[in-house]
Amino acid sequence: MLPYMVDFQKLRDKIMDKGYNKVLLQLPDGLITYARDIVKELSDFDVFLSAEPCYGACDIVVHEDKLTVQFGHSEIPNIRYPENVIFVEMFSDKKFDAVVEKFIEKYRCDSVGIVASVQHVNHVNEVKALFEKRGITALIGNGDSRVKYPGQVLGCNFSAAREVDMDVDCFVLLGTGVFHGVGVRITTGKKTYVLDPFSNTVTDVEVEADRIMRQRFGAIALTEQAERFGIIISDKIGQKRERLAMTLKSMIESAGFEAYLIYANRVVPESFYYDVDAYVNTACPRITYDDYLRFRKPVISPVELQIALKYRLWENYSFDEIVNVD
Ligand code: SF4
User: Fold this and answer.
1) Does any ligand 1 atom lie closer than 6 A to the CB of residue 148?
2) Using alpha carbons only, what angle is made at residue 208 by residues 203 and 213, rounded to the nearest 5 degrees?
3) What's the CATH fold of domain 213-316?
4) Taking the complete model, does pTM exceed 0.85, yes or no?
5) Tens digit of each residue's pLDDT (9 = 90 or more) over 262-317
């Protein structure tokens, strides 16, 4: 049984309205165990499961004769998707009362910014009210055109946090896992806590943020010795930053080094055996941070390249974010 609410009748009606008999299902890893249940719900149609990884709404698989139905993500508003793609959002109904109470008891924070991963973004206003009831100012940023909901953050976009960071003492992130919280911490410089309503735990992301920053500075230091660079570009619809890659190539060449542009759909270490000293990743920023140790050569972000080439000061480090794609 699916852990999130889905109105399957509405979904069936939508597929009918679109006029497709064939459906291509894209499921994030966490939903693959429910694939059979979902296929059964859609038994009026010919359903095909896509075994390609599906990490976000930036990443869609399209077959001309089928309707792609991606579960678990919200569309990214500033992407122009093909007509034959729809999204099934999945929101959690888990309440935050207990974990907010736990946070207030343990941590001192007079004004708080509230952000959330998409599965919990439906709770930001209710959490705001809980804080305000206890006399704590709570703010929610709207975010830029890469996010659909106020307070929503992606692993590549923390604009909703940046919008209010000058006016809050700390951030709480509604969700599970620490990556998004670390992104908020590094982007805003403010203390950040993850409130997980399933385990009823509050996690201070400081230790993980420190670990990642140490790793990043190590990667930049290694890249300062590099003379040949591979610039990775994704051809996924919501990750493609070819123009940025071209700018980086010029920057590297102006500094007297070699640069090669490398297109990839799946950016996996097995595909990167090029004779270069370092890679600059313009695809999903999570690859730089999460998969760093899996690559044989240092992988850095565009901002980190600027630091390595001395176009930017270390003090002006910032997390890689995607606002627009090509
Ligand atoms: S680019 Fe990466 S972090 Fe951004 S939405 Fe896609 S998978 Fe998530």
Assistant:
1) no
2) 145
3) Rossmann fold (3.40.50)
4) yes
5) 999 999 999 999 999 999 999 999 999 999 999 999 999 999 999 999 999 999 99
